[in-house]
Amino acid sequence: MNFDRTILPRIMKAVVWRTCNVLERETGVTVTETATELRDVNVLALHEATVIVGIGGAVSLLIAFSFKRRLLERMCDRYTNGIDIADYGREFYLKETAAEIVNTIIGLCMGDFHDGNELITLSPPAIIEEARSIRRPRNAVFSCIALKSGSSGLEINFVGPRHLFDERLNVVARGA
Fold first, then answer.
1. Domain 7-164 carries which CATH code?
2. CB 19 within 8 A of CB 156
């Protein structure tokens, strides 16, 4: 069986589109700018809250959504509108809001990911606490898509196997 190299670009496109859509619909945040960057670095810097999901099946991939503080606060304020939250519980709600947003995004992407041939598996969203960086796994590449909304935003980092990229770190989109 040949590996279908169109899967990764489809996943990346779906995640970005669904993220923009969910942010606008659920939190009123409009993404005004997107920028893609492929990184061959050893360590990926993270923002204030990061939620990671794993995708398995036709391609094994980790997706890390790293939110800037201002966006987290805007999302949390929208989700908790009308709920009296003590100051000591604010951090908990910020992180849980991020995890819930990511869970919604990835859930909506399932139809976009599926190619009809292989079962797609997902890990539950995991909130990274206290870590400010992720080390690149051996034989992996980081691909980052930054989404901006005013002075805030998030980065969606895809951590995938090196064989999905060419020597210039472009996603290989042709069949094997």
1. 3.40.1550.10
2. yes
